[in-house]
Structure formats: structure tokens, C-alpha cells
Write the C-alpha cells for this entry.
Amino acid sequence: MSGYLARRIASALPTLLGITLLAFLLLRVLPGRPGSAGREEGMVSAEAMARVRAAAPAAVSPAAGYAVWISGLVHGDLGRSEHDGRPVTTVLGEALPWTLLLNGTALLIIYGLAVPFGLLSAAAPGSRFDRLGGAFLIGLYALPSFAAGLLLQQWVAVRWNLLPLQGPPDIPAGAGWWQAVATTLAHATLPAVCLALSGWAFVARYARAVFQSALGRQFLTAARARGLSRTRAVAHAALWAAVPFVTLLATILPGLAGGSVVVEQIFSWPGVGRLYLGAIETRDTPVILGLTLLSALLVLAANLIVDLLYAVVDPRIRERLEGEPSGGR
Amino acid sequence: MGADRRSPARRPGGILRGHGRRGLSIGFLAALFGVALFAPLIANDRPLVARVGGRFSFPALGDLFRFGANTGDFGRPEINWASPPPGVEVLLGTPLPWSYRGIRLEETLEPPGWRHLLGTDALGRDLLARLVHGARVSFLIGLGATLAAIGAGLVIGATAALRGGLVDVALVRLMDVFSCFPPFILALGIIAAGGRGGPWPVVAGIALNRWASMARYVRGEVIRQRSAESWEAARAAGAAGPRLLLRHVLPLLSGPLAVLGSFGVVHAIILESGLSFVGFGVDPPIPSWGAMLAESRATLDAAWWPVLAPAAALLLTLAALGAAADHAGETRSPAAPLL
């Protein structure tokens, strides 16, 4: 197992290098020099411009620039924001918990609703529940998250006044911890539901297919023949089919990360996605670069963890992979 | 599956399942594609045929090939077609006499009615006309980006599988790298780097993101089918390079690629509408369905119809694409790839 672990991590290293190279090429080499933001509008005085230029690394060859950037990266230094001069890592660190909260809640909603739904419709294929649910899922899959967000805001928040409209929770001073948790959850619910919608349809369809193939297995027929109740047989099948859901996580995570850009914008959520849009608007290259890199690294890490979990859960896969020298997919 | 020998239309709820649904969705998509392609001939404030100073002219036809550019009518004297000056005679107007950019401040936020079938937006622009032109943007971006992604995926995936060795390792690594970037974020990054202007950064952003999954699929399929006898025969006969790719790889993969392609168009349209929604899509006043939704946000308290039209259009189109892809998957390949 440890050998497999080491090989899997080693095989991710070239990908890691490729990610940094692509991000740097795309965002540092293609556009203009650092410090060009706001110059066209005449908003920055020549004096201030000179100061920014002096602070920014001098124009060097892309290769040298990459070397400097990567050595900073290794030391956890992503440079400073061109917008307000704070270190990029600080700016990211402030926004990241909000995005993680949102995405974590969305994941809970996705799995909590989609897996039972898939199980129920697979248990009775062709039933009214299955057919209506299938049509509902196609509709849900096709509904863009921002359209859903607008509708949710308009009805749940504005018309019915059930949940807060938008924004981060402002917890009153002196509130107990349970009150803080309740306020935070109330504020996170609408954006998380909105973020969960498209992933939900995807996981539910997948769950239906997986459970359907699981319910047709012979070991279930055998168990039923020996007198196992229907409910317990379904529970067995559900356990047997649980493994692929771990891998599915790696598939839906990039979509969630992208989706939270739109959702955070709609709900004024102070997370990474909104930061990214703001940085693009102000052409704050260090922040754009840092965020692009961060998102790709998170996806890479998630892939790695999912692969390792998969090997932990299913010994057959571990054996097969340990036989292979390169361990990659 | 029970053996139901009735025709699909006679089964309970039948026309919406089976081949009826496929026919319906493919017909809908074809009609929509026609609308998208010929949008300037359907909704335009310039007539189709007019007589200017004794000569025939076709003012609307000129708009047909102007796509994406911020229509440069500003320097040119434009005839007032609504009340033509003497010597100008409108012979045949377009079915919808409104253009997507005709601002009419005296008709802002009119509810759907006979004059404006879907109502008007906050600037008094006809929503149906904008919807028709928005189909053009959404469809052409979705199709263009997906075709580019399939082309790149086919060439790179097949190269990796057929060359093998170091080339294969390097190309697979490249696919890994690209698929680590979340789609939306990669597209935004490319738009940030390339600057805005027209639909091309959007197409490039989406295509650069989608090609990796196509290439991975093509590579897997080619490796799986490499040992088939037909291939050996083709190679023995001297087929190699582009010929092998076009005549022998492509036909084997055409069914699954059609499925991947329709899902790809769905993703591209969603991505484009999201980009337009956050303000990094095509430049206004060119409408896209996502941009229309974003614009409708400001007046949501006063009017519901500006939201309804583009949302319904997106929903119907994507559902039709999904249904068509589902059926192509069921009829052509036993295991539809889950994207």
C-alpha cells in the first residue's frame, strides 16, 4: 500500500508542474506587463505608476520570470495584489473558508438527496416515480444555475421571506455559538441549493444506473431466495454500489468550483469565485494567477485523494494498480 | 422491459418517450438551428426587399454574415425604414419588424402582447427578436467550440494511441493538466488573458477546456479497437496518418462522438450563458440567452417576462439536446458514456 501511495503521488508531480506552467503561460506571458492595470483610463498618476513598476519584478524573459515565480511559490509566496497591495495568500485565505463552506454544504445536499432518489427509482424501474423523476432530472440538468438562483431569490427570499436574500451572515456580537451556526446555515442554504442543482441531477442519474446494475446481481437473487427481506436486500445492494460514488466526487468537483463563481456573484457571497471575477475586472494578475492555480491544485488533490480512497476501499483495484509500474490512470 | 407491441404514439404517455421524443427533440433542434442561422432575416428592423431610387436592394441580407462584430452602422447613413423617405419603398419586411438593438424608450417593459409577442425589456427592445438573435450566439458558440474540441480531441487522442511510447505519455500528461482546471475558471482565465471582443475568446476558452475529455475518450477507444482485423487490413494496405484517421478511426467512433458532441454542446451553451451572465461573454448589445437573463435581473421586481423568455429557451434547448444525446447513446452504443 505505501508503495502504491508513493508511486501515485510521484506520478502527480509532472501534472503539478504542467499546471503551474500552463497557468503561468496563460496569465503572465500572454497579457501585457505587470502594472498595466488602470493606465488606459488615466486613473493612475505617472508617479504612482513608477512606484508600481519599481515594486513589480523588472521585465525579464518568461523563463526567468517563471523561475522566480515558482521559487516564490515553493516558499508559499504568491506575490502581492496589484489592487490593494496585500499578499495574495492573505487575500485567498480570507475568501477560501467561505467557498469551502458553500461547496461542502452543496456536496451534502447533492449526495443526501440524489442517492436515495437513485435508489428509489432503480428499485422500481418504469414506475411513475421513476418516469416523472427522470423527466424532472432532465429539466433540472438543463436549468442553468444562475436562472435557478434568480428564481430562488425572487420567490423564497423576496416573496415568501423564508431565508435571507444574500450575503455573508453578520453574526450579532455576543451571540451564542448555536445562534452563529444557525445564522450561517440560513445564509448558506439558498446559494448551496442553487449550486447543488446541476450536480444533483448528474449524481441522481448516475446513482440510478449504478443501483440498477447492482440490483440485478446474482448474489442478491440468491440472498432473496434464502429468505432475506426486500428492504435488507436493497440495503445490501446499496452498500455494494457505494464504491463508485467516491470516484464520482472527482468528476463533479471541477463543475462545483466553476459553478460557485456564478453562485457567489448572484448571492454576494464573499468567496473565491467573487474574488476571481473582481480580480479579472481590475486586471489584478497576481490574484488571477493565484486563484487559477489554487483551483487546479484543489482538483488535482481531490483526484489524488479519490484514487487513494478507492484503493483503500477496494483491494482488487489496489492489486491491479500495484502490478502496473506507472500507477497513473 | 415488457413487450408492448403498440406503436410509440399509442402507448400511455408514448409520444414523449421512445422515438416520438427523439423525433420531437431533433425536429426542435433543427428548427432552432435554422432560426439561429437566419436570425437577421427573421427579426430585423431593415426590410428583406426594398426599392431605393428605382433599384432593388436587400438590406437585411447584409446582416446575415455579420456575426459577433459590434455592428458598425455608426458611420453609414441609415434609412429610416419605419417611415421611409420619398423614393424609398419597402416591398417585403421581415416576419418580426424589430432588431435586437433597436432601443425604444417609449415602450420599456411592455408585457407580452400582439405588438411584442414576448414583451419588451428595460430598454424597450423586443424580447422575441433578442431571443432569436440570442439563439444565433448561443448555438454558434456551442457548436463552434464543440467542433473545435472534437477535432483537436480526435487528432491528439488518435496520435497518442497510434504513436504510443513517449508521445503517448506526454500527450496523456497534457490531457491531465488541462482537465485539472475547472471549466468555468479556465474559460474566464483565457478571456482575462486574451481580452474581450467578439465571441472568439469565449469559443477558445470553451474548446481548450473540452478537448481533453474528448481526446481521452478517443485514445481509449482507439487502443481498445487497435487490434481489430479491419484495422490490420487497412494498415497492411498502407493506410497511415490522416487517411487512417479519417477513413478508419472516424467511422468507428462517429456514434459515440455524436453523443459526446451533443453533451458537449449542452456544456458549451451553459458555459457561454454563465460567462455572459457574469459579464465576460459577448459584448452588448449583441444578445445571448445568458446575457439576457443577467439584464433581466435589474427589473425582476417589476417584470417577470424578461426572465421567462431566455430561461425557457435555454431549458427547452438543453432538454432537447439531452434527450437527443440519450437516444443516440441508447441506439448506437450499448453503454452511453457518462460525462
